[in-house]
């Protein structure tokens, strides 16, 4: 009884979080609900990879739906035995862990490279779209490298 309630709550939470991840990543691709930024290539490369949709969204959504099906004992969808549910849960949980890790990796890479914006090149009047906080070289070996949020 306790495992069933836990599976229901876990499935609902995972489903809500996956749908939020998909929604937020779509808003990153279409700021102000306008597709012109995407057409003009004014969206950062980390947002264009859509990790919130395929990694943090769809992979986690599969686990959430499977937990809901098992928790509520939906007829015709949970007709397998307990061993099948456990095996499917383990496989989908590993898939969800890989997806969430990939989403975390792409998000962290986006934070380290900084925002994709219009900035002045070299203090002059010329402006270009890009990542103004990226340093040339390897940031691991550069001791003066600072995370752009703390500058």
TrEMBL record:
Topological relation to the membrane, as annotated: Multi-pass membrane protein
Cellular component, GO annotation: membrane
InterPro entries: L6_membrane
Residue spans crossing the bilayer: 12-33, 53-74, 86-109, 129-147
Keywords on record: Membrane, Transmembrane, Transmembrane helix
Main location (coarse class): membrane
Compartments where located: Membrane
Alphabetical list of Pfam families matching this protein: L6_membrane
Family in the record: Belongs to the L6 tetraspanin family.
Protein name, UniProt field: Uncharacterized protein
Lineage, highest ranks first: Eukaryota, Metazoa, Chordata, Craniata, Vertebrata
């Amino acid at each position: 009884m306790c495992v069933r309630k836990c599976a229901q709550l876990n499935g609902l939470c995972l489903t809500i979080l996956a749908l939020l991840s998909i929604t937020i990543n779509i808003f990153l691709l279409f700021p102000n609900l306008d597709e012109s930024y995407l057409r003009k290539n004014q969206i950062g490369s980390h947002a264009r990879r859509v990790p919130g949709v395929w990694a943090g969204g769809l992979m986690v959504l599969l686990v959430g739906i499977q937990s809901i099906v098992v928790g509520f004992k939906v007829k015709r969808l949970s007709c397998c035995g307990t061993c099948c549910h456990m095996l499917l849960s383990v496989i989908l949980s590993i898939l969800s862990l890989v997806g969430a890790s990939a989403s975390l990796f792409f998000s962290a890479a986006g934070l380290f490279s900084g925002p994709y914006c219009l900035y002045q090149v070299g203090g002059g009047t010329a402006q270009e779209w890009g990542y103004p906080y990226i340093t040339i070289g390897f940031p691991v070996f550069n001791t003066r490298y600072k995370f752009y949020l703390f500058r």
